[in-house]
Amino acid sequence: MLPAGAGFAMKLILIDDHALFRDGLSLLISSRLFPSGAPVQVLETGSLSGAAALLRQHLDVDLALLDLGLSEHQGLQTLAAWRAVAPHVPVFVLSADDRPEVILDAIDGGASGFIPKTVQAKVMQDAIHHVLAGGVYLPELPARVAPATSSGLGFSGRQADVLRLLVEGKPNKEICRRLDLSESTVKTHLAAIFRKLGVNSRTQAVVAVAQAGWSLKSTPSH
To answer: Based on C-alpha coordinates, what's the Rg of the chain?
Structure first.
């Protein structure tokens, strides 16, 4: 781990209660995933309480890598507890359990991506860069929804704004507040988004965006 105060390109927080895994992944991230430019600082902790303490010291964390099997919580309860601590920090779920229902439930719970612990370094590199660019990363899933393509969908500016916040895991009330829209207007936009993506739920919309490989950037308010 690099000392505080260095010229870091970004900061990641790695939350996993296996010290050997943390050390190995931290070294991999620092030496191979971001080999050029300013160094990456990887903050390490084995618990959510430790992560909360680190966040109080480091207000500029760009991304969290979260193991679902911590001693304090298990499974998706871990993700829910983390989102309560740091709702504005994008989070990648790390797990040895890569069943499709677990992956989709993690995305539905607000994760920006899901990385099985069995993936190769290059896959993890591409996944992290994709999420940092504003996208959502999923491992390959059985075809539950048809992959979306960007051509011909014709999202309006506001629909794109709503879709971006939906992908970030924001509930309707938060989307209303962020975009200064009424709840009925947000629901109308969501219905149009679902129709254009050919899906029936928020989770399926997120999966469709991930399968299409889109990076949804913030757009100016209208």
So the answer is: 18
